[in-house]
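Researcher: Here's the sequence for the chain we discussed earlier.
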Amino acid sequence: MTRDPASLDPESRRVRNRGERATAPTLDGVNQAHVGRYRFAALQVRPGDRVLDAGCGSGYGARILADAGGLVHAVDVSSEAVAYARRYYPHPDLTHYAGDLVGGWTPPARYRVAVCLETIEHVRRPDALLVMLARALEPAGRLVLSTPNARHRANRRPNRFHRHVFTDAGLLRLAQAAGFQAVSFFSQPRRDSERVVSGARGRYLILVARNAEASA
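Model: Thanks. This is the structure I predict for it:
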């Protein structure tokens, strides 16, 4: 069950209010749809895989990826969010970094899986973000990326934290331009459920793709 923001501890409220981050000191306080997206992404992770969580926020998702067996590098532009993640969601196979994904942060490794959930709508250059993710992945590495579906926001007030909105067609064009192949779409029909279904009709789009770089 998602906690009422007013019931969060002061530290969680502060991190949440400075960037639309899902925050709670324990996983049972995080919105189920958010948790469901990370659990879906974790299905791509094999034990020992190097995994990048690009835009890790408060850190609960990176912990899910590490619990799935990944050797996880989690990065966020907010040093405050990274400190929160280190405090509440540590794991021996998880390393956190503060850095700007499209502003100079250099991945310290190449990854078999890159996860980028609810981040692309926030950055100035979504095309540059996808290019960075492609370069960070190993040949044939897998990308899992999610964002709110623009088709469900037509009659809603703009979100002050979002620079962009995406349809599946727009997201597909960006992914292919960055060199991704075998793009598939999944989605979440509800905001309060972990359920993920095939297709792009739900409230939250989830793109799964393979890096196009040829193996040596």
